[in-house]
Amino acid sequence: MLSFIIAGLLPPVVYYFSFTKTHNKDYKVASVFGASLICIALLALAKAHVRNPRSSYLKSVLYYAATAVSVSGITYVVGNVVNQLIEKYGWSDDGSETPAGEMMLSLMGRKAGGFGYSSSY
Hints:
InterPro entries: ER_body_metal_sequester
Structural class: mainly alpha
Number of strands: 0
Keywords: Membrane, Transmembrane, Transmembrane helix
Number of domains: 1
Strand content: under 5%
Transmembrane segments: 29-50, 62-82
Shape: elongated
Mean pLDDT: 79
């Protein structure tokens, strides 16, 4: 349970606290990838030790690291393709509300683009 909490919380914490002044997205992704890879390597070492103390640690770490790298690469590429499609067809949220979004906000009694509530009386 403790390893799940630590390995699960470390990458988002690294993302939040890394490159806060420059907000460089590529550096943030690289730092989260590095932190995740370190967590995966440590968990693979622990699994190799618990499962069979005389087993090959290197084999276990390489297996899980290769799986993580390949899955991360695939999801990064797919994310970029989806982002390009969203921008191409104009589905991105550029700060302005869509007509359906404005209608829903007005039904809820809120002003579009603001955080405050408007009175309908």
